[in-house]
Amino acid sequence: MRRELRELLPGFEHVEVERKVGESGGDLWLRLMRRFAPFSIAHTAALLGEGTDRGVIAVGLALAPTRMLAYDVMGERFHLQVKQPISSLLFLRGWPVDRIHLRPWRDDTVHYPEVLQFSGKEVDPRLPTVAILSPYLPWPLSHGGAVRIFNLIRVAAGSWNIQLLGFRESRDVVELGPLKELCCSVTLVKKPEYRRFRWASVLPPEVLEYNTPAMHEVLRGVKRDLLQTEFTQLATYGGEVLVEHDVTMDLAAQEHARVGTIASWWNLWRWRRFERAALRRYRAVAVMSEKDRLQLGMGRVVPNGVDLERFEAAPERDGAGLLFIGSFRHYPNALAYRFLVEEFWPLLRALVPGAKLQVVAGPNPELYYPFGAIPTGDGISLHSFVSDVRPLYDAANLVLIPTPVSAGTNIKALEAMAMQRAMLSTPSGVNGLDLRHGESVWIAEGAAGFAASAAQLLSNFALRVRLAERARKIVEERFDWRAIGREQEAMWRSLLP
Fold it and tell me: Mean pLDDT score of the chain, rounded to an integer?
């Protein structure tokens, strides 16, 4: 806090103040008023946490009611103001900043253009054109959504002109990779920068995060036969096809059933209202599984898949290696990691002292982990983005999918199946894949059940092999991206004149 304040206010005199033993808040205020009477106070600041002296914070607000900074234990700073009493009170009560506000990542020293446009391969006038709207650039393949969008673009690129549109964070380094050879153009719009209450709007906050006039303007200028919108939070942009990567109201319902708070109920109500209305505005809706189609009462199943040429089965090595892959950008993955570290891991290490756990948390995990500092433990190795996860699968003896809530289908499960590794999952972790416990996957719930199952599987090589071989056959029969891509193209052609 001291270092950051000196960087924010260079050239100012910085004075640290402590309350004297037995000194009342009023006496402290009078002492400081006399001490700083000749000066103009640029800012006051206080560090929150255990043992916080609320009287000192009150005095700081009294001295500079519009220029009071508070820092929480994570180093997040918040501008406390009398004219924003609710948000200030929530921060003082320990709410993280990103739960209070849709908050931008600002850097006022650098200018980031609103729109970036890149040309790709030449447009073929004989082919129809589809525009694909994504909440991010689907390269590199840092999470399941990017894997799906990229692979289906790759399959369709030979028969369609692809115009790709997406959002980017201000600080993102743009790497198009093979997208430049697959798409006729790539357009990226800077993600909107908001500072508003994330819980005080009728629209879900994830929808507000991506709502920008710049993207609406870009879409008006795109010549296309079809527009496919990826993910429910972008549904306000319209189009012919909406891809329901997750049935988001299902995810919100699972979370509300799990925690049962007023906040979870409010989030569920908002998503149900928004998603049901959005679905009616599209000519076609793509869903990930028959379960999702039945739940919505509509939609065409265009499932997730896996690149079977890239993810090939390899013999298992000796050891007790476990693997969990899940970008913390997706909330259920962060929830699963907390369960692994805080509940499951101490129990498993007592049963299998030599167990090792590799975790791939995706880019900037500290930015997306919503529970404070990322915990770890003995025998746990935490990775951020890994460009090629195949060596991690090769080294693993057991793949964990411990998501307590989940919607859609998990691509990490399909990759584990293709790599012919046994999986230990919660029921939600393999939703929509029609896998059977004891045949192609091992299902367990709760920390004790998960730990006992992991210990059993690690000690039983024959059982792991049987589960993994059956899972590999299922993925070969039903989840090849090439066949799934043809299903998506058939849906597109049905919508053309």
Answer: 90
